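Design review, sub-item: ligand-bound model
Attendees: FS, YL, KQ
YL presented the inputs for the iron/sulfur cluster complex:
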Amino acid sequence: MKIQLDGIKDDRFVRPLTHIVQLFFEEADLHFEMIDSPEFTVHIDVTEGDHTIRANAMGILHSTAKRYEATFEQNVSAEETEKERFRLIKSTVSYVLLSVLEEVTGMVQQWGILTGVRPTKLLHKKLQEGKSKEAAHAELKEDYKIQDHKIALMQSIVDRQLDVVPDLYDLGKEVSIYIGIPFCPTKCAYCTFPAYAINGKQGKVDSFLGGLHFEIREIGRWLKENNINITTIYYGGGTPTSITAEEMDLLYEEMYESFPSVEKIREITVEAGRPDTITPEKLQVLNKWNIDRISINPQSYIQETLKAIGRHHTVEETINKYHLARSMGMHNINMDLIIGLPGEGLEEFQYTLDETQKLMPESLTVHTLSFKRASEMTQNKEKYKVADRNEITRMMELATNWTASNGYTPYYLYRQKNILGNLENVGYSLPGQESIYNIMIMEEKQTIIGLGCGASSKFVHPETGKITRFANPKDPKSYNDGFEQYTKDKIIILNELFDINKTQV
Ligand code: SF4
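KQ shared the predicted structure:
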């Protein structure tokens, strides 16, 4: 639909309002200036008072000449910072725009105006401020237009997280570690992670691992010197089991030697996402270093789908490797599934759930396909036919019901832009098998230090919660050229964050 939006002059509104329109129309044609023959015109007025911010949207659908109107007002205190005041104006304007678009299209946005990644973080914040659950829920409904069933989902996730990590709000004094290994056997079509096809690149792998060992040593030394403990470690990528068993062995040896009190770390996870990388030798190495939480990711149990998305392994291989891992001591296996893969509908997804039921992994992460700008799939969108919004929603309902009736409970969730049906990704687990790292990354209550290629660090101030980000480069060459400097930079940030007055390295 061709939409003309009048009355908004500030460029800072362009992105958030475009996101709101995109919730309704996949190919949003939104203009902030006068255009020829718009299909829908909406005029937004904002009135700022000392104590209130009020927005009014008046829309007209030209094909029917029908008018639509919405008004919303929020309180604002005189002491509010400029930034907070702007945030309130933005949410007030988003609210009225969303309201008229809901009326015009007849669609109800389950997450309301919330387009951010971490809805549960918002609820944690309100509860931490001392608000009752009822008051916090009322605010989520009134200020963001979130539907009741999504608020209930958020609350059950927050409750579950606090059961699993009762000291979640105090973990700012510890850190978690993310280790990024940027290699995979082949590149999947929807992937935007740093993942380089490994075949024939041994030279590159060797130099990359040299840099990674250096980072682990130096960061480990800093943590030991400053008595800072590690809560969780996560090996991701890429596929960290793409490297050889010997390389994995040396890496974990380095981890044990360099990091403080590794035996006390609450959880160590290694992504073994691609079943074609799992071998008995690599599982033995994981056993040797007491690592029993891995991820084996089927994504789908339909062979044609795997072929279409560029995963060069068979469904049978996923199942065999799952049994192999289980028989060799992996007690906590996560499996990722994706709703809405090309060519898949309800029937295919039901088949995938039926196959999952035969395995019953300890945890299951259900993603909804998202079209990320840089992926092969987005750049050649016409090649990949995906289910429509209604079917995607029904597939998500299928996942919700299936997990509930098989003993899984949701324990984290996150959303992405351009996600099919504007839904979410949900992590489920059997009782007591939740991944603490996933909770840490979602709720942003502690610093996560990223080591290796494409690893982003998120520094969370232990008292103020202020977040500073730092990204290692995504390609192995730039990483190899600069890993010493990236390590130094991170240590400088860590010294400031934990108020340590010395420069190391
Ligand atoms: S296995 Fe994962 S990281 Fe590797 S190419 Fe596929 S989606 Fe990307």
